[in-house]
Every structure is written in C-alpha cells, then in structure tokens.
Specification:
two-stranded antiparallel sheet; PHAF1/BROMI; Protein broad-minded; mainly alpha
Length: about 1200
C-alpha cells in the first residue's frame, strides 16, 4: 500500500477545513462540548449531504485503493470449498466475515497507521494557525491542574456563540503518557491528575487510541479505589453516550467484571441493623451498578444494528454478575445472608425494567433465553427461591415493613433493613419471572430444580405459589400501593390472562383453578378460610376468574371440565361453584361478608364473573337453573325500594351510604342488562320486570359513548339489535328515548349535515344512493326494524301527520314521523320541507325496500298507509307530456327507485318467478330498458311465465306403502316412513311433489298426532258452528295476506276463481280455533291486545299445498296443532297460547326467537366462531338469520346500485 505524500497531507488539510466550515453552524449551536462531539460522531446519520463532502469522498477512495484487492480476495475465498456454506447462510454473514478478515489483514493495519499519522500532522497544522488561542488554553490548564498541559484547544465556534465551545484534540503520545500515569503503581495524585485530563478529552479520541486496551485495564483498577472511582465512572458515562456498541460493550463488560470481582471481598450481612448505602464501599458499588443499569435500559435501542456477538457479550456479562454470588451462597446454605449485586440492582430498578426491555424484542429475547437455558439457569433458581422464601416467611413480617421500599418516592433514605432488601429482591424476581412466563420459550425453561424441593418446580406450582402470596397479603393494587404483593401478583396474572397460550399453559390448569376457588369452597362448606382479609382477597380472585372466563378456552374450562373437588372426592364444574357462591352473596347468607360496604364490591365482582358466562348462549344454559336473573331482580327491587322510601340524609355518612346504594343499583342493572346479549337471556330479562330500567341505563351509557365493560371490545350494537328484535324490547327502547335519539341523529346527518362548520374546500357530491355519512344510521334503522313484531309495536295504530305545512326546523322524533317525511312524500309541503329532497327521499325508499323484505311488515304498512297507492300516485304525477298528447314517466333516480319497490312488493316469488328491475340508470342509448307503470297490474315482463313441468314418475315403493297402510297407528309405521323418505331424498328427491307430498304429509301428521308419545299439546277438539265462523272478521292485514296468497296460487295454477272464498273461510276457522286457546292479558303490548299480529302464512301455505281443498287443509292443521313442531313452524299457533307458561305467553316473545334462535347462535359460535365474531362486529345478530339473506341483498342494493 502506498504511503500518503506531502501533497496528500496538504489536500487533506484543505478538505478537513472545508468540512469543518460546512458544519460550523451545527457545531456552534450545540449546547455543550459533549453534544458537539455527538454531532460529529453521528454526522453520517444526521446529515444527508455526508457522502457529498469532498473529505468523505477522499477517504472512501483511499480505502478502496488500499483495501480493494484484500476484499475481493476474501470474497473469492468464501465462495470456494468450506466457504460455500457461509455464503448460503445469508448476506449478513458474508459481510460480517469479509469485514472481520479485512480488519485483521496487514494492509488494513498499515492503512490505519498511515492515515492516523497523516491526520495527526494535519490537525497539528490546523492548530498552529490559532497559536494565540492555543497558548491561552494551555495557560488555563496549567493554572487549574498545576501541571504542564497535555491538551491543546482549537476554538471552532464563533465569538458570539451561545457558548464558548472548543474541541480537544489529543495526541497519541499524550494518550500513551496518560495510560502510563494511570498505572496502579503510580502515586494516587498522578493518577488523579491523569483522570482529570482524560475526562476533559473527547471519548472518541481516547477509545480509538492504540493503548486503549492497557488504558481500560488501568481504569478498571482505579474503579476499586474510592478517590478515583467517580472520575472513572464519569469517563465511562461519557463513553456510553457517545460511542458505538463495539466500544461500549468493552467498557460495560469490564465494569461488570470489576464489580463482580469486588463483591468477593465485600461481606455486608443482611440483618436487622440494616445496610447503610452511604457507606463509601456500598455507595461506590451502587453508582457503578446504577451506570450499568442505565446502559442496560438504553442499549436495546441500538444493539440490533450491530453483530449479535456484541449483544451476547453484554448479556452474558450481566448474567455472570447476577449469578456468581448466588452460586457461592447456594453452596453455603444455612449461613448468614450477605448483600449481593441483585439487591443493589433491585433497589435501583425494582420492577426489572431492564429485563423487560431485553425480553421485548425477538432479536435480544432469543439470546437471553438461550443463555438462561444453557449457562445461567441459576438466575431463574434465585428468582424462584426468593418467591418461595417470601411465601414461607411472609407471615412473620410486620405489616409496616412489607412495603417500605415504596417510601423512596416520598423521601430519600440511606438505611435499608435486611427485610426491605429481601422484599426488593422479591419484587425484582417476581417481575423477572412474570416476563419469562409470557413467552413460549421462557415457559420451556420450567420445571426448575430448587433446593429443599424434591421435585422441580413446574409452571403450575409457580402459579399456585403466587396465588398463595396474594392470599397472605391481599392489599388491593392501586397507584398508591403499586409494590404490594397482591398488586404485583395480579399484574402477572393479568398479563397471563391477556395471552391465549399463556393462559392455557399457566392458568387453565386444575391445581390453579382449585387454588383460586379454595376460599370460595371453604365458605360454601361453612368453614373458615385462612385468608387475612377475605373480602379483599375474594375480590381479587373474582377479577382473575372474570378474565379467564372472558376467553373461549377459559369459558369452556369453567363450563365443561370437572376440575373442582367437592366433598366425598366428587368433582364438579367451576361454573356451578361460582354461581352458588354468587347466589349466597346476593342473598346475604355468608355471615362475614354481609356488611354493605364489603358485600357491594365483592358481590359485584362475582356477578361480573357470572356475567362473562351468562352473556353467552352456552353459559346461560349452564347457569339458568340457578335463577341468577331472579336473584338480581330481587336485589335491585330491594335497593330501589329502600332508596325510594329513605329520608334524605344530612350527615356525610348517610350521603356516602346513599352513593354506595346508587352504585350498587347501577351494578345490578348493568348485570341484568347483559342477559339481553342472548335470545333466551332477553326472555329472562323481560320476565324480571326490569327491562325498561335496564334499557334506560344502557341508553344513558350509550349517549356518553361508554364501553360496555372492561372485557367487552365492542359497543352496545349487538345488544341493541337483540333487544329490538322483540316487542317488549323495542317498546323499552322507545320509552327510553333511544329511538328518538337515533331518528334525530339520522335527520341531522341527512338533512342538516355539517354546513355550520367552516368549509376549506367544497365537499364532493356523493354519487351513491345513500351517502356514506348516512350509512351508519341506515344500518341502525335496519337493525331496529328487522323484526315485524318490533315494527308492529312502533307503527301499529299510528297515523301519519300529513300536515299542510312543515317548518324547516321541524325535526321528526319517531319512526312514524320518519316515514311521513322520508317515505310517504305525497305532497308539495313535504317536498319543500326537505333541504335535500332527492337524497332524503331515496334514503326513505331504500329503507322501505328493506322493511318490505318481511311480508308482515309490508302488510302493516300497506294496510295503514296505502304505500303502493302512494307510490303509484307519485309515478303518475311524475309524467312529462309528449307532442302526441300521451304522457311518459320521467326517468330519474326517484322514479327508478319507486319502480323497483312497486315490483318488489307486488310480484311474489323467488328469482325463478319474478324479474326485479335495476335500481340505477345505465349508460348508453337505453338508460332504462324496463317499462315503468303507474297502475296495477304489474307489466308481464316482470313476471316469469309459469310452465307446467313434465309429469314425474312417482316412487312405486312409497306409493305402495302409502296405499297399503290402513292402520297408521302402528308404532313401526313412522320408522318405515322415515326410511322411505331418507332413501328418496338421497336418490330421487324430485318425486316428492304434488299428490305424493300431500299424502305423505297427511298420513305422517295424522300418525304423530294420534301417538301419545308424540303429542305435546292437547288434542284439538274443534267443532265450530258455521254461523259463528262466517261471522268472524279478518283484520285488514289478514285480508291483504289472503289476497296475496290467492294471487300467488293463481300464478302457480293451483287455485281457481272460487278458491278465494275457501281460503277466507279457512282463515276464519283457524282464527276462531286459535283465539280459543289464547290467554287473556292486560299487557300494553299491541301484539297481545288483538289476535296474532300479521298474516297466518302457514295456513295459507297448507291451503296451496292442498290445491285449495279447505277440508283437507283444516284437518291437517288441526292435527298439526297438537305436535311440538307447530310451536316453531306455526307462529300464529303458539302466539299468547295457554299451553305455555303465563309469563312466557305474556312476554310477547315467541319460541322461534328465545329457543330456536338461541340454539342457532350457540351452534354458530361453536362451529363457526369467525362467522359469529363477524356478526358481533357488524352489530347484527344470528337471531336475524331467518331473513338475513333478504336483508343483506337489500343492504347491498341500498349502498350501491346494481
């Protein structure tokens, strides 16, 4: 390699001066010398022009010229022979290997030596140009240190800078002299002066000198001397903050080894007299470990940018320091305990923040766990021993000494007792173990062999130990007592509960659940517990149980695993134990826990555990026999009545008791409200009589946008939809003001918008039929009105306003008002009252199309408001007269939408029976090729012509069976029938049509109704006089339904012209029959005040199947009415029936909802959990599945055109 010439020196001097001038402003603005050095050291990271400086370009070119051949040779050697594996192992490995080999080469050493010598000359030349300033700086050092100056200054800052900043350039000869002066054989004064000079020099110059290795050894030796230790730590601290990891790790490892070796001679006993941290030797160790701890917490931010071996050296030196003393102590068990590095580290970082940061990133966590497993497992052993020792000895601690470590926050302390230091180490150990447990490879380190224990300590045993510690010290975790044993244990348990795999490995184990429920079992059995403070401890236990039950695995553990041992070694489910204990708390049957101040919080905690179970379909099935809803309702009524009759208090104590009672009342209402999450739970809530109060409470929280609970991720959307699906639920929503708030919010978004907000740029005009800002309100209305019973409660007997004049400030406040303003827009007054007529009316028509998905809802709207006539009239008025005098409907978005709704409600059938027109105008010559109409009937093009199918040959075996079965009362007849049915459905299902299906239905229903084991309801003994039947009247809704069924039957060519009278007569027969089997009720529900709300679609369907034969249809329906299946497929039959409990009959909730929908939701969660979660996120419920397909179709059409 060629040496640098004199011309090179002159060029380098010019380039260096140019570099310093380019960054002069940045250096001058630095607040201190250390910051200026930091700027220079990290110039490549912070200056985007770094690689454009000529000085940098020169150095790069010089390195390429000097080392290019060496690098190429190393790369070639790696790609041959054994080096092929290194290349395959990754690019980083190749770069690292080439870099190491190059730095070890002779060419690299020669290049560095030549560059150093040349730069020294260049710097000296620059320094000599400021001779006067140099002399002044030398004089300052001469006066300060009484010795010849070993450093020279170059003032690189302006005279009017914010600080008088200088840069110290120190020569190699001076560093060599400093190294010699720091030798331990030199007098202390000489070493002290050398340290002062060293601290004033830039760490980068010192760390890069050739004598750094010797200097580092001398500095570590000086660390053991009290007079010199502080200056060495000062230099190390500057080096940590301004040097790369490859240098700082040398300092850190040297510092760790020095502290480790020094502790061999330090024997400070941990006794009652305490440890004074102001003692020189302890204070020195404390400062050294403090510096190490600061580096431990900061090094994680940058060690990923360096080779892994650097990080491994730092971690290994730390573990070596923390384990060597404990190893010596473990060999001499039984002797007096002494102060260890872990005690001092625990005082400085009591919650092991350093370890949490090391375990946070995968890069460092892998190395930490590897070293713990292979070499330093004793550190885990020490942590476990501390937890075990604390558990065994905590009963002897005085209450005042347990948490005194926390007093450091309020004042400085100098003396710590041995008990306090042991407690600090326990907290540190517990935090360390907690971080190990949350990672899979950390849990794999268990079981761990511990002294005095025959068997290794497993994960389960560790959790049992921690829970027992919580039992001994049940101080509630809070900000003011963050270091209490119970608070620390609860933090660990919370972390485990939040992670599925952690909870499964650690908490979902029988010994852990038994330990958690041990005090509960003892109290249930009438025994005394060993708890020091049962109410507080049990509250903490309930918190953990609730978090476990909030997960699917935890819920399954409580409901389906017999992991609790009762008397006589019988095992039972945890859910039963929790429910029994909660009932006893509610009924105040536990003597020591009946005080109101105690019972309110404790009982609320265990109710919350039950709530995590009964707000699922599966959990409600298990807990329903305990009648928790009844107990909660009783407690709520007692609290409400006591609060209503009590006189207003005057004293502070009475006021506090009043506030506690109000909070308890809210807790009960919240718990009752969560029954409404499931269909069957909603029925139970309705039976308590508290549904109105619960919905009012929900609405108050909903308006404040409060979370449902700490364990619930989503809001009240699903709960509102579940409640709105029933008549009593939607009535409660209406009375609470929820529906009014929803309508007002919709109106403000739809009509008012945000026009009062300052507009920076115009809002783009929405091209969607429903603007995205209104979509949330639209979906909320769909959820609210998805059930026909809910619509009947909100619209039944309600008329539309149809005012002559509407003010612009008149806002609708109910669903009828909304229909009047957005759907039934049949006057100029309504049109002029809308700011955005087209958008708002389109919204109303889209909502109408969704409502009409349910035929009962459509019948109600048509019978009360004549929706079809109104739409036809609007189409007739929206006509443009042509030259020939004929009118043609104007083609616009509203006429297209009205046309769609008219076809949708007028033509009955599925996709193969009708053709629905598009809901948007297309581009091209024919924007809308479908004909519009303004009067009925609907044009034929919207109806698919019905064609008679070819005669299908029937099944001979089935025909023979049906023809030969004279006695259908034979018990074996149904089995044979089912075998024929299964065979046909598996081979030729198309043969089950027409007369074959009719005969099969008749005989199967007749057989089941005559069998005592199959008959669920009493046999139908119906004999009505013809006169009374003919005098019966059908509601307008029933007449409309009859007309639709007759029209559909005519289309299918099943009915004749005279069939309408037979269908009407059949409807009257069934109405008379069913009315005789309904309870008399005084309910304010509209659906219970008259006959069945809606049309009896099953009766009409049977009439069509029988091809208009009224007698056969009536006989089949009467036979069917005695079977259990009729309660689920025939809503009109079970409506307010006398054959169900009175409370259920008066609830207005049918079995299709509280039974069928309940089990559908249970199966959905079990078999398709992701689909179930999608329902909850969207705000829909599986109970809407009976018409969910139509709803999704309508919603998709409402958000975008076809």
């Amino acid at each position: 390699m060629s040496q640098l010439t004199s011309e090179d020196e002159l060029e380098l001097q010019s380039l260096l001066k140019q570099l310093l001038q380019s960054i002069n402003d940045r250096i001058s603005n630095a607040p201190s010398t250390e910051c200026a050095e930091e700027i220079l050291l990290h110039l490549e990271e912070t200056d985007k022009n770094f690689h454009n400086y000529e000085f940098v370009k020169y150095l790069r070119q010089y390195m390429e010229t000097s080392l290019g051949a060496v690098v190429e040779e190393e790369i070639k050697s790696l790609t041959k022979g054994d080096g092929q594996h290194a290349v395959g192992s990754g690019h980083d490995t190749v770069v690292h290997s080439v870099t190491c080999k190059t730095r070890e080469s002779t060419e690299y050493q020669q290049m560095m030596q030549a560059l150093k010598n040349t730069m020294i000359l260049v710097v000296e030349s620059l320094i000599n140009k400021f001779e006067e300033d140099q002399l002044r700086k030398e004089e300052m050092h001469r006066e300060a240190h009484h010795s010849q100056s070993n450093s020279q200054y170059n003032d690189c800052s302006d005279s009017d800078s914010s600080f008088n900043q200088s840069y110290t350039f120190i020569r190699q000869e001076q560093l060599q002299a400093l190294t010699e002066n720091l030798d331990s054989s030199k007098p202390k004064e000489v070493r002290w002066e050398a340290l002062l000079v060293l601290c004033s020099a830039p760490p980068s110059d010192v760390l890069s000198c050739e004598s750094w290795s010797s200097l580092r050894k001398n500095l570590c030796a000086a660390l053991t001397e009290p007079d010199l230790s502080d200056h060495v730590l000062q230099f190390f601290a500057k080096s940590f903050s301004s040097s790369p990891l490859n240098v700082t790790r040398e300092i850190y490892t040297s510092l760790a080894k020095t502290v480790e070796s020094s502790f061999f001679t330090l024997k400070v006993p941990l006794d009652s007299s305490g440890v004074d941290i102001t003692r020189p030797e302890i204070s020195r160790f404390l400062k050294q470990i403090r510096l190490m701890n600061d580096f431990q917490k900061e090094v994680t931010t940058f060690w990923i940018r360096h080779p892994e071996k650097y990080m491994e050296e730092v971690i290994e030196s730390t573990f070596s320091l923390l384990t060597f003393q404990s190893e010596s102590a473990s060999s001499s068990l039984g002797f007096e305990k002494h102060l260890e590095p872990l005690h001092l580290l625990a005082l400085l970082d009591i919650k092991a923040t350093w370890f949490k940061k090391w375990m946070h990133g995968h890069y460092s966590r892998t190395v930490v766990l590897k070293l713990l497993e292979k070499k330093y497992k004793s550190l885990i052993v020490v942590a476990l021993q501390e937890c075990i020792h604390y558990k065994e000895s905590c009963e002897n601690y005085k209450e005042g000494s347990k948490h005194s470590v926390n007093q450091q926050k309020t004042g400085q302390r100098s003396v710590y007792t041995g008990t306090e230091l042991e407690y600090a180490l326990f907290v540190h150990s517990l935090s360390l173990l907690g971080m190990l447990l949350i990672y899979t490879n950390g849990r794999k380190l268990f079981p761990v062999k511990v002294h005095k224990y025959k068997d290794p300590i497993s994960l389960t045993e560790l959790l049992v130990i921690l829970i027992n510690i919580m039992y001994q010290h049940p101080r509630a975790s809070s900000h003011s007592d963050s270091l209490s044993p119970s608070g620390l244990v609860m933090e660990v348990l919370w972390m485990l509960c939040e992670r599925t795999e952690c909870a499964a490995d650690c908490l979902h184990q029988t010994p852990v659940i038994e330990t958690l429920l041990a005090p509960v079992l003892a109290l249930l059995s009438g025994h005394k517990t060993k708890l020091k403070c049962p109410p507080v401890t049990l509250t903490l236990v309930a918190d953990v149980l609730a978090r476990i039950a909030n997960t699917n695995r935890g819920l399954d553990l409580f409901l389906h695993r017999k992991n609790i041992v009762m008397s006589h070694n019988e095992r039972t489910f945890a859910a039963h134990i929790i429910a029994q204990f909660t009932l006893k708390l509610l009924n105040k049957e536990l003597p020591g826990l009946s005080d109101p101040e105690v019972s309110y919080s404790l009982c609320g905690a265990f109710i919350f555990v039950c709530r995590q179970m009964y707000n699922t379909c599966e959990g409600l099935q298990v807990l329903r026999p305990y009648g928790l809803h009844k107990a909660l309702a009783t407690a709520w009524k007692q609290t409400r009545d006591g609060h209503a009759t009590s006189a207003p208090g005057i004293s502070q104590g009475v006021s506090s008791e009043h506030e506690n009672a109000l909070m308890w009342q809210e807790t009960i209402l919240d718990s009752l409200l969560n029954f409404a999450v499931t269909p069957k739970g909603l029925l139970l809530l309705q039976q308590t009589g508290a549904i109105n109060e619960c919905v009012e409470y929900m609405f108050s929280r909903f308006t404040k946008k409060l979370q449902v609970s700490r364990c619930e991720k989503f809001g009240y959307g699903v709960m509102v939809t579940q409640i709105a699906a029933t008549a009593p639920g939607v009535l409660a929503l209406n009375s609470s003001g929820f529906i009014r708030a929803l309508v007002v919010e919709l109106w403000s978004v739809l009509e008012c918008g945000n026009e009062d907000v300052r507009v920076v740029r115009p809002k783009p005009t929405s091209m969607d039929p429903i603007d995205r800002s209104c979509l949330k309100s639209f979906l909320s209305l769909v959820n609210l009105l998805s059930s026909s019973q809910s619509v009947w409660e909100l619209l039944g007997r309600q008329t539309l306003a149809n005012k002559d004049e509407y003010t612009l400030r008149e806002v609708p406040a109910s669903i009828p008002d909304l229909i009047d303003r957005l759907i039934a827009v049949n006057s100029d007054a309504k049109i002029h009252s809308l700011f955005h007529f087209e958008q708002s009316h389109t919204f109303g028509l889209r909502l109408l199309s969704v409502l009409c998905c349910n035929l009962d809802t459509f019948l109600l709207l048509e019978s009360q408001y004549n929706i079809c006539s109104m739409l036809l009239q609007r189409q007739k008025e929206n006509v443009a007269e042509l030259d020939n005098g004929k009118g043609e409907i104007i083609l616009d978005s509203l006429s297209v939408e009205r046309n769609y709704v008219l076809v949708y409600v007028s033509v009955v059938g599925g996709p193969s029976e009708r053709k629905l027109p598009p809901r948007s105008i297309q581009e091209g010559d024919e924007p809308f090729p479908w004909p519009m109409f303004s009067c009925l009937p609907v044009p034929q093009c919207y109806t698919v012509e019905f064609k008679d199918t070819d005669q299908i040959s029937s099944d001979p075996q089935l025909n023979a069976f049906l023809a030969s079965s004279e006695d259908i009362t034979d018990k074996k007849w149904m089995e044979v029938c089912r075998s024929h049915y299964r065979r046909i459905m598996a081979t030729t299902p198309t043969v089950l049509t027409g007369d074959v299906l009719v005969n099969l239905l008749e005989k199967a229903v007749s057989h089941l109704s005559n069998a005592d084991c199959e008959r669920f309801f009493p046999e139908a003994l119906y004999k009505a006089e013809e006169k009374s039947v003919k005098s019966a009247t059908l509601l307008s809704v029933e007449e409309l339904g009859t007309a639709i069924c007759f029209r559909y039957g005519r289309y299918l060519k099943l009915l004749g012209d005279e069939s309408v009278a037979d269908l009407t007569l059949l409807m009257k027969h069934i109405k008379v029959f069913l009315c005789s089997q309904r309870v008399k009720t005084t309910s304010r529900l509209i659906c219970l005040q008259d006959s069945y709300p809606g049309h009896d679609w099953l009766t009409s369907t049977v009439f069509l199947v029988m091809k208009g034969n009224m007698d056969r249809a009536l006989r089949l329906l009467l036979d069917l009415s005695s079977l259990l299946v009729s309660a689920f497929i025939w809503p009109a039959r079970i409506h307010a029936s006398i054959h169900v409990p009175l409370a259920v009959a008066e609830s207005g909730i049918g079995p299709v909802y509280w039974c069928t929908a309940h089990y559908v939701e249970m199966l959905l969660k079990s078999e398709l959990p992701l689909v179930h979660s999608a329902f909850r996120i969207s705000g829909f419920t599986p109970s809407q599945v009976e018409y969910i397909e139509n709803m999704i179709h309508s919603i998709n059409n409402s958000t975008k055109g076809h």
